[in-house]
Amino acid sequence: METIPHVVERISQKIEAKGVTVDHEKVRSKLTLLVEEFGIQIEEAERTVTNELMREHNLSTPASSGQEQRAIGDVTPGEWVTVEGKIVSVAQPPTGAIAQSGIIADSSGAVQFVVWTKARAPTLKERTWYRLEAAVVDEYRGAPNLKVHSGTKVTELPEDRPLMPNVAPIASLKPGVGSIRAKFIEDWEPRHERMMQTGLLGDESGRIKFVLWKDGEREKLELNRVYSFYYATVDEFNGRLSLNLSTAMYIPEEGDIRVSTGSDAIEGAFVHMAPGSGLVKRCPVEGCNRVLSRQNYCPVHEIQSTFRYDLRIKGVIDDGKKARNVLMQCETVEQLAAMSLEQAIEIAENNPLGLDDVLIQLQHRVMGRYFRCTGSDIDGTFLVRECRPVQCDASLHASLINRAAASPGGDIA
Fold first, then answer.
1. ∠119-120-122 over CA atoms, to 5°?
2. Do 276 and 405 fall within a single domain?
3. I need a labelling partner for 218 at 20 to 30 A (CA). Which of 309, 350, 354, 410 fits?
4. Do residues 381 and 328 make contact, with C-beta atoms less than 8 angstroms apart?
């Protein structure tokens, strides 16, 4: 690998700067072993070799050598560790270089693991305890990740110890693996054909987006039902967390919980109504709910003879400084535009313009008006839960005009 000589030089300079002579060939040999034999990323291999040299020459506090058993909840990237845990989930390998991936847990916590194909390790079985000696901990998407390589000793343990997941509030989740008790509060339209379900979960501390993929035999969640979710993958993207439930066990619970409003607020003029607004038709196939085309075509289930109507607004609210994409569902649209779903259906079915007539009337009722909206920003779209008109601010109006004049063609949207 062409980068190894550069990394050898960097490591050597770092150690020699502390007054210690380094054997460059020894550094190169260790790096090559980690990268080419164990399949470890070059960045993690560099950190591992540097830490070993620091310990060897007493330049830093000694870390785990990989021989002393560690609690899974305490492992950190850059370590060689020995852990004992239960395989609570096994996932489909994303590439041929990976033989297995999943989640291993003990009483202290859980971590995602990867078994490299080159490791030729025994297949790990779900609901079975194992001892993994000299595994490598690196970082993936901001969370610790346990790597089983050819130097890892894998031993199946005969006993089945009791294991109780550590359930935490949503607000305390961080990238990695988490368990929560939450209520399914919003069911969203899937944006990908591999998605079985997506939406919003909430508890007393906050709210979080979830995705359930069509991997294996999974049951859909029931709206407004409380569930316990064990060992879900917590992902981070653009500073926002989301739950991947494909790795999780989830159990419906009795009773209810009080969900935090978790609301942000935006205020400004409604300057653009996007395609897909107005009265729309949705696919009637259970679990689909996708918007149909004008010819009643579903991108997944093709032509549909029946459908159900829905009312929504997709658009842009601008406060003179920033434009925000917004999405309003049926109940919010009914209150904001003083038009019920039944009235919209009647307009569409009794006017020559049909669905276009509903859209035109919605535009007349909201375009250019000022609103204050509360809701949540998810993936760059502000999901509006409440919206009310507000009095026009003269300085705000001037800023909007200036933005319009500065844009090509004077188009605010």
1. 115
2. yes
3. 309
4. no
The tens digit of pLDDT for each residue in 338-380 reads 999 999 999 999 988 989 999 999 999 999 899 999 988 777 7
Let me know whether 22 and 88 are in one domain. Answer: no
- CATH number, residue 139: 2.40.50.140
Q: Determine, yes or no, domain membership for 78.
A: yes
Identify the residue whose tokens are 């935090």.
260
Parent domain of 126: 72-157
Predicted model pTM:
0.61
Q: What is the DSSP letter of 218?
A: -
Domain containing residue 383: CATH number = 2.40.50
392-405 burial: b if 16+ Cβ within 10 Å, else e: ebeebeebbeebee
330 domain-assigned: yes
Per-residue pLDDT tens for 9-48? 888 888 887 788 888 888 888 888 877 766 676 776 787 7
